[in-house]
Amino acid sequence: MTNFANVERRHLAALLRRLGPDAPTLCEGWTTRDLAVHLVLRDGRPDVLAGRALSRVPVLRDRARRAEEAVARQPWEELVRKVEHPPLYSPARLGPLDKRMNTVEFFVHHEDARRAQPEWHDRPLLHDEEQALWQGLSLVAKVMLKDEEDTVVLIAPSYGAVRGGRGRTGTVRVLRAVPSELLLWAFGRRGQARVEETVE
Hints:
The chain is 54% helix and 10% strand. The protein is of the alpha+beta class. The protein has two domains: 4-115, no CATH class; 142-199, no CATH class. A four-stranded mixed beta sheet has the order 2-1-3-4, with helices on one face. The chain is globular and about 50 Å long. InterPro entries: CHP03085 (IPR017519), DinB/YfiT-like (IPR034660), Maleyloyr_isom (IPR017517). This is TIGR03085 family protein.
């Protein structure tokens, strides 16, 4: 099977080149430049991500901020090239690891850039691509739904079902769609995800 993470990486880079650095995305407050900076840091600067996570440690926080600002100042074409081609030392260069850590990430962020544009259109995926996204969703669904007060059941016909949420209200919300749309819904892109919801 094709490495869907790598396919999405290439498609996203092509889209970023077309949109330019100032286009909106579905990530609140982020332009396409902000999205590209995030992906470059994620691939090549885990120390910066650690500095963000440990922001109460001033040395790490300040170092992370400076590094992020330096990446953000890079010319747009250079930044997009780094999104498309991670550094040689990046785990993203290893096919199996790339699939595990980047399939969901690059699909979601590709859609963040696509669906924020007024002319976006449906993009049917291949069965193998949907299967890869279903595997990713199955791994993270409980974490992504942990703050839902209701019980939430995500059903992808012919792929399976996952359940999450706290179940405190007695309400069961059932969402049906292909895996890609359920994934976007679970990751908070609820206004743009094409899902059918029923309440039981």
